[in-house]
């Protein structure tokens, strides 16, 4: 099934990002530095603004810095490919940033007495972590799980749009976005587990006929 953030859109973003990536590499900036900077920016947007109710500023800052995922990946490719530590760092920073975003959203909703929204935010955080874990575990077992309608970029865009609209006065937008995101995240977990299950069935068991 096609991802929400279509391949054509990703390709268009890449064409915009590539000149910036080349410039940063020429200036001696490393992909790992961009990864850490992006995470710090997300933390500032989520905890410094979103958690305090400044949803428009928080959503815009988080979105801008979340797009460094494309930038550091492009830089790594241009410089000869990601290192093992670079891949580890990127994945770890993603988990930190995601926790900050959904933790901040849950905190702000709690201050507003929106208990259903808090539940949705926590469900999004848990389901998003499982989405990432299933992929990492599958790859650790020699399989792949690069499927699903809601990968990390899609998840951040959905919550970002919801936060932005709520900040602009469309009160239910954030909660609607969170429940939508929870649903598609859980569906994505199912997609990935099914994908891995099908691959596992094709692997011959020891002593079998192959």
From TrEMBL:
Homodimer. This is Phosphatidylinositol phosphate synthase. Its main location: membrane. InterPro entries: CDP-OH_P_trans, CDP-OH_PTrfase_TM_dom, CDP_ALCOHOL_P_TRANSF_CS, PIP_synthase_PgsA1. Its EC number is 2.7.8.-. HAMAP family: PIP_synthase (MF_02241). Its cofactor is Mg(2+). The chain crosses the membrane at residues 116-134, 155-170. Contains a di-nuclear catalytic Mg(2+) center. GO terms for molecular function: magnesium ion binding; phosphotransferase activity, for other substituted phosphate groups. Catalyzes the conjugation of the 1'-hydroxyl group of D-myo-inositol-3-phosphate (also named L-myo-inositol-1-phosphate) with a lipid tail of cytidine diphosphate diacylglycerol (CDP-DAG), forming phosphatidylinositol phosphate (PIP) and CMP. PIP is a precursor of phosphatidylinositol (PI) which is an essential lipid required for cell wall formation. GO terms for cellular component: plasma membrane. Mg(2+) 2 binds at residues 69, 90, 94.
């Amino acid at each position: 099934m096609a991802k929400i953030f279509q391949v054509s859109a990703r390709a268009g973003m890449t064409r915009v990002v590539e000149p910036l990536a080349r410039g940063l590499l020429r200036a001696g900036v490393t992909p790992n530095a961009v990864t850490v900077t992006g995470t710090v920016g997300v933390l500032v947007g989520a905890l410094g603004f979103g958690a305090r109710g400044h949803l428009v500023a928080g959503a815009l800052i988080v979105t801008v810095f979340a797009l460094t995922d494309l930038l550091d990946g492009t830089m790594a490719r241009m410089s000869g490919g990601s290192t093992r530590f670079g891949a580890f760092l990127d994945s770890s920073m993603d988990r930190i940033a995601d926790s900050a975003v959904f933790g901040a959203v849950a905190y702000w909703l709690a201050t507003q007495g929106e208990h259903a929204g808090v539940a949705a935010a926590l469900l999004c955080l848990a389901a998003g972590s499982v989405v990432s874990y299933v992929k990492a575990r599958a790859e650790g077992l020699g399989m792949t799980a690069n499927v699903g309608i809601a990968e990390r970029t899609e998840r951040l865009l959905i919550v970002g749009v919801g936060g932005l609209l709520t900040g602009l006065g469309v009160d239910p937008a954030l909660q609607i976005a969170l429940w939508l995101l929870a649903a598609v995240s859980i569906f994505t977990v199912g997609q990935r587990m099914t994908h891995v299950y099908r691959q596992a069935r094709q692997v011959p068991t020891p002593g079998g006929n192959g």
